[in-house]
Design brief:
binds magnesium ion, 321 residues, alpha/beta, 22% strand, Rossmann fold, Ribonucleotide Reductase Protein R1, domain 1, binds guanosine-5'-triphosphate, binds zinc ion
C-alpha cells in the first residue's frame, strides 16, 4: 500500500522552484493520475509512486480545476525527489461535483442505520450518476444497529432503491458483516464511496482493506451526525498491480443541488419510470396529476411510493423553474 504521509508540502515547494529553474530543459512527458489534492497542490501516481506536483497557473485562469482521478501529463519529472509539474489534464470520461472526482467506474452511495438516511441526498446523488450513465450502488452500513436504531418506515424507504433497480448492499464495518458482498463490486476501476458525514465511509474502507488505516470520526452524541472527519478525497490503490483498481474515500456532505436540472427532464433520471412513461396519455406527462398516467399506475407495484413522492416534491418545488 502506498504511504501517503510523506513530507509532501516541502516536496511541492521544491517542485515549483525546480520548475522555474528547469523550464528550458528538454523533457519527456509521462502520464500520471491525481491521487489527491491539498491546498492547490497535487499528489500524482506515476506507476506505483506518488509525486508531489504543482499545476499550471493557466488551469485556474481557464476555470479548470484538476480533480482526483484525472489523468495528467507530467513534465519536469524528478524521479529522485518524486516531484513533477502538471502540464495538461487529459479528457475526462465523467466527473462528479460532490465529491469532486473524475473518471469514476462505480459510485457507492453510502448511508447508514444511524444517522438516519438522508433520502433526498441519496436521490440527488443517483440523479447526478444517471445523468452521466455512471454506475451507482447503495450501501447501507451499521446493520449491527438495525434492531434498535431504525424505523420500519425508513427500512421500507430503503427498499425503494431495490424496487428502482439499484443494487443495495447492507454491511457492518464494525462487525465485518457482508463485507465480501461489497468487495465483489470493487474489483478493478475507480470505486468511490460517497455520502453524508458519519455514515462510515472511511470505516468501510478500513474494514475491507486492512492496512489502509484511514482516520475514523466520532459521532456527535446529541444529533448522531458525523463530524466531517475526512477532509480530502483520495485515491487509494488496492494493490501493487495495475489491474486491482482504486477505492476512493471522500469527505461527507449534507446537500447536493440539482436545481439546475429542468423539471421536465428530471423524470429521465428515475430509471424505474423509463419503462412506463412511454405509455402515459400525454407525451409531456410529468406524472403529477395528469390523467391516464402510466407511471402512477405502477405506484406500489414497480415504482416505490417514497421515491415517487420525493420526485413530486422536486418537480413541484419551484413552479417558475
Ligand atoms: N455501530 C457501528 N458504527 C460504525 C460502523 N461503521 C462506522 N461506525 C462508526 O461511525 C462513526 C463514523 O465513521 P466514519 O468512518 O468516520 O464515517 P465517514 O462516513 O467516513 O465520515 P466523514 O469522514 O466525516 O465523512 C465512527 O464512530 C465509527 O466507529 C458500523 O458498521 N457499526
Ligand atoms: Mg471519512
Ligand atoms: Zn405520466
Amino acid at each position: 500500500m502506498t504511504d501517503f504521509k510523506f513530507n509532501a508540502r516541502s516536496a511541492v515547494d521544491a517542485a515549483i522552484s525546480d520548475f522555474a529553474a528547469d523550464t528550458a530543459l528538454p523533457e519527456t512527458a509521462r502520464t500520471g493520475r491525481i491521487a489527491r489534492g491539498v491546498g492547490g497542490n497535487y499528489y500524482v501516481l506515476l506507476g506505483k509512486e506518488e509525486y508531489a506536483c504543482a499545476a499550471r497557473g493557466l488551469f485556474r485562469k481557464q476555470g479548470i480545476e484538476p480533480l482526483v482521478g484525472d489523468f495528467v501529463e507530467l513534465i519536469n519529472i524528478d524521479d529522485a525527489k518524486k516531484t513533477a509539474f502538471i502540464n495538461a489534464i487529459l479528457p475526462r470520461k465523467n466527473s462528479l461535483v460532490r465529491p469532486k472526482a473524475s473518471n469514476i467506474d462505480i459510485v457507492a452511495i453510502v448511508c447508514a442505520v444511524s444517522p438516519r438516511p438522508n433520502f433526498d441526498l441519496i436521490d440527488a446523488m443517483l440523479i447526478t450518476c444517471e445523468i452521466q450513465s455512471l454506475k451507482a450502488i447503495i450501501v447501507i452500513n451499521k446493520i449491527d444497529m438495525l434492531d434498535c436504531e431504525i424505523s420500519n418506515s425508513d427500512i421500507n424507504l430503503l427498499k425503494g432503491y431495490e424496487t428502482a433497480g439499484y443494487q443495495v448492499v447492507s454491511v457492518s464495518a464494525k462487525e465485518s458483516m457482508n463485507l465480501e458482498d461489497l468487495r465483489m463490486h470493487f474489483y478493478g476501476g475507480v470505486n468511490i464511496l460517497a455520502g453524508a458525514s458519519g455514515v462510515g465511509k472511511s470505516s468501510i474502507i478500513n474494514a475491507l482493506y486492512p492496512g489502509v488505516n484511514l482516520e475514523i470520526g466520532e459521532l456527535s452524541t446529541k444529533i448522531a451526525r458525523g463530524k466531517h472527519t475526512t477532509r480530502t478525497t483520495q485515491l487509494i490503490p488496492l494493490c501493487d498491480s495495475d489491474n486491482c483498481g482504486f477505492i476512493v474515500d471522500s469527505p461527507g456532505f449534507s446537500s447536493l443541488n440539482i436545481d439546475n436540472i429542468p423539471k421536465s427532464e428530471l423524470q429521465n433520471y428515475y430509471r424505474e419510470f423509463l419503462e412506463y412513461k412511454e405509455n402515459c396519455y400525454y407525451v409531456n406527462c410529468l406524472h403529477i396529476s395528469e390523467h391516464d398516467c402510466a407511471v402512477k399506475e405502477q405506484l406500489g407495484i414497480n415504482i416505490d411510493y417514497g421515491r415517487y413522492e420525493r420526485y413530486i416534491r422536486y418537480v413541484t418545488k419551484d413552479a417558475a423553474r
